[in-house]
């Protein structure tokens, strides 16, 4: 069975994907509960080496700059050894929101800076080699996972069903899908 690695597999989205893909892949969860600290460079190196065992890598955990580092080093390693597969990176649509709106909603500005860095690296890697087999960096940006309540009840959101449909589409496609922005309304 093909292997799939998911960082942050105990978060709400990570758990959804971890449980959902159990029947389709040999899923390896990366989190503190499985002995990995994304703030530790030795653990990041272990994850990068482990990535060679997987067909695809879901880069979900938002811990400091680790998402960007994992994308860079996994893509480099896979390129160096001629490895293909998809590195699916989770960004946020908040990077496209006006600063005036950001001031009105609770947004962690440090997290937003890390997501912008991730997006910049993704854009660079996704066009570095325009043709042929290669590691594929895929950026997913979505609005709000799960319906919000009270004063945020009218905000767009992404349901668990929609999330798994999008990831299925990416994993099962024969096409290099670079970026997807989505939300339910």
What does this protein look like?
The protein is an alpha/beta fold. The radius of gyration is 16 Å and the shape is globular. It has one domain (about 5-180): Rossmann fold. The N and C termini lie far apart (about 35 Å). Helix 3 links the parallel strand 3 (about 55-60) and strand 4 (about 85-90). About 30% of the residues are buried. A six-stranded parallel sheet has the order 2-1-3-4-5-6, sandwiched between helices. The protein has helices at about 10-20, 40-50, 65-80, 100-105, 110-130, 160-170, and strands at about 5, 25-30, 55-60, 85-90, 135-140, 180.
Task: Tell me the number of structural domains.
Answer: 1
Number of strands: 6
Structural class: alpha/beta
What's the level 1 CATH class?
Alpha Beta
Approximate helicity band:
25-40%
**What profile does the largest beta sheet have?**
6 strands, parallel
Order of helices and strands: EHEHEHEHHEHE
CATH topology: Rossmann fold
Could you say which overall geometry the principal axes of the C-alpha atoms support? Answer: globular
Output mean pLDDT.
91
Q: How large a portion of the residues is in β-strands, by DSSP E?
A: 15-25%
- Counting DSSP H or I runs of 4 or more residues, the number of helices is 6
Report how far apart the termini are: 36 Å
Strand order, biggest sheet?
A: 2-1-3-4-5-6
